[in-house]
């Protein structure tokens, strides 16, 4: 069960669908595994929960 994880800010439904489809397609081709064996997790982080360089 290969797992692909992406953490990002807010994504709309179309972006999520496209990311999942393309990540799965590429990984399945590269790893020579069936697409059905992949899990893709998209983790959304709201901007007020992100700090960069010690700043919110």
Could you explain the architecture of this structure?
The chain is an alpha+beta fold. It has a single domain, classed as Macrophage Migration Inhibitory Factor (2-Layer Sandwich), CATH 3.30.429. It is 34% helix and 21% strand. The protein contains 1 helix and 2 strands. Strands 1-2 form a two-stranded parallel ribbon. Strand 1, helix 1 and strand 2 form a beta-alpha-beta unit. The radius of gyration is 14 Å and the shape is elongated. The chain starts with a strand and ends in a 12-residue tail after the last strand. The mean pLDDT is 96.
Which short descriptors sum up this protein?
single chain; 56 residues; alpha+beta; Macrophage Migration Inhibitory Factor; two-stranded parallel ribbon; 1 helix; 2 strands; 34% helix; 21% strand
CATH fold-type name: Macrophage Migration Inhibitory Factor
Any idea what the CATH superfamily is called? Answer: Macrophage Migration Inhibitory Factor
**CATH domain class name:** Alpha Beta
- Which descriptor suits the 3D outline? elongated
Kindly summarize this structure in a few lines.
The protein is 34% helix and 21% strand. With 56 residues, it is an alpha+beta fold. The chain has one domain (3-49): Macrophage Migration Inhibitory Factor (2-Layer Sandwich).
What are the SSEs and their pairings?
Elements: E1 3-8, H1 13-31, E2 39-44
